């Protein structure tokens, strides 16, 4: 399949259109999303993948200019973005106190005066998850108790993914035992560069089995993969191996999430859905720090995959500073003035 060949039916239109605000922003009752059972590795499919880079880049370049939201509609979409956020701290100087403050922010991402001014107190807006290192999982689980917000743990030798395989599996087991409900694993990039797709498949499948009931997000580290065809192939192998989500980046590469890379991954999710009927989630991570970027990603998900991918079961932003800019935009919506970023601390 050529990942750049299909475009939205409206991709060629020059008319600027507006996305209507998402109705019913209230958190829905948690529902059990069908897990990805995986499938046998199909090397013919993997090897036949082609990506038309120029077509991908042209399509990615049209998404922002063709989609505009203003005023109340923009506020509604920014509130949606908060619900789709994996609020993250992955620093070497993380402390239990910082994680506890981050979890408090996850429970109440907006200051009360904004909640009151927007009239959204009844919506109980919260983030999608909190993402931390294994060492901080138990701290986050305790801090989020009773909130319904899951804890995601980065694992398997994050960010390089080069620890011995038994050690990476033990790390997953430890995080799940500590209460993590989502595990973000890192693929071994060497398997891709040597064309050892079977090794990549076997490794991700072992991680998926180790996760048990915890959802598996496979990080491709796309900034290391060099060409879009590699991104498409790695996406496909991880989904075949049972990944529930595919994720762009660790946030530690020189280049993290970009629209062209994300579009390729989304097209592979669509191809997998057409082949198997299984819905796979997508998580762009790293470098998404502005509210206007989040709006473009939401437009792309809506255009390419449809309404179900605007729910936290199928879409997340991996973010540490995005929430700050969203708060500033909402403050401007309410007061007509932008507040200083330091007035909206995360942790």
- Strand tally is 10
Taken in chain order, the helices and strands follow as EHHEHEHHEHEHEHHEHEHEHEH
Give the CATH H-level superfamily.
Aldolase class I
The assigned CATH architecture is Alpha-Beta Barrel
Strand content: 5-15%
What number is the mean pLDDT?
90
* Sheet with most strands: 8 strands, parallel
* CATH fold type: TIM Barrel
Cα distance, first to last residue?
Answer: 44 Å
Task: Give the count of helical stretches.
Answer: 13
Number of domains: 1
Tell me roughly what share of residues is in helical segments. Answer: 40-55%
Report the radius of gyration as a whole number of Å.
19 Å
What would your notes on this structure say?
- The protein starts with 16 loop residues before the first strand and ends in a 12-residue tail after the last helix.
- Helix 6 (137-143) links the parallel strand 4 (129-132) and strand 5 (151-154).
- 44% of the residues lie in helices and 10% in strands.
- The chain has 347 residues and is α/β, with parallel strands linked by helices.
- The chain has helices spanning 43-48, 53-66, 71-83, 96-107, 112-118, 137-143, 165-178, 189-193, 197-211, 228-240, 259-276, 291-304, 322-335; strands at residues 17-18, 67-68, 85-88, 129-132, 151-154, 182-186, 215-219, 245-247, 281-283, 317-319.
- The protein has a single domain, classed as Aldolase class I (TIM Barrel, Alpha-Beta Barrel), CATH 3.20.20.
- The radius of gyration is 19 Å and the shape is globular.
- The strands form two sheets. An eight-stranded parallel β-sheet has the order 9-8-7-6-5-4-3-10. A two-stranded parallel ribbon has the order 1-2.
- It contains 13 helices and ten strands.
